[in-house]
Amino acid sequence: MQAEALAQVSQLSGRCHTSSPEPCLWEHLRRDWGRRFYIRLDVEGCFHTYPDVGGPFKSLPETTEAIDRYLEARRDPKMCEKQDKGIRGHLYWPDGTVKRRTMSEKTEKSEMRQLVQALVDKYNEDHNLFEDLAHELKDVLHYQSIIENLNLYYHFNFKTKIKGAGPNELSMDNLFFVEVKFIGKGKLIELQANCFCAVNPDDNVNSLFF
Fold this sequence. Notes:
By secondary structure, the protein is an alpha+beta fold. The protein has helices at about 1-15, 60-70, 85-90, 105-125, and strands at about 25-30, 35-40, 45-50, 135-150, 150-160, 175-185, 190-200. The termini are far apart.
């Protein structure tokens, strides 16, 4: 099932590491809406979206169609009016929010949290952590983008808690560091987690960003 799903993505993106034993992650950029969606492929060959637009889905076309419906449901009717449509389209996104030269801090934080959530879900699945043993994302502490040797990377520090932690463990957080590499170009950009490791709370978090 997963091999068939990977073949679908490979046709669309032009690149996919089918030899990797781990499920894949992708960024789906909708430039026309100024939005990013993240897609995770699980071991059963089903696609999950972040933010959640329904599913899980059995095929990539079904996934992207669901994203289209999700966006269309948020379209501002005024953006469909023929009068001044060109001007409105230049100044506003389809949902009616004002376009800015740079992404707003609130939107960026929301999208980064969605990506980290996808990474946590992938981590749980890779390590067979289900039900009470699964990690739940608590807070994204810090993130930054880095360009090195013409490659783009994201670095994250975030906290999780164990879903089934007992009363004496509720105050215990798990601190993680993740490095994500962007691979390839196309409608879908593959995201590869080069490093996903636990961090000692006594360590200097900022020292992990380089």
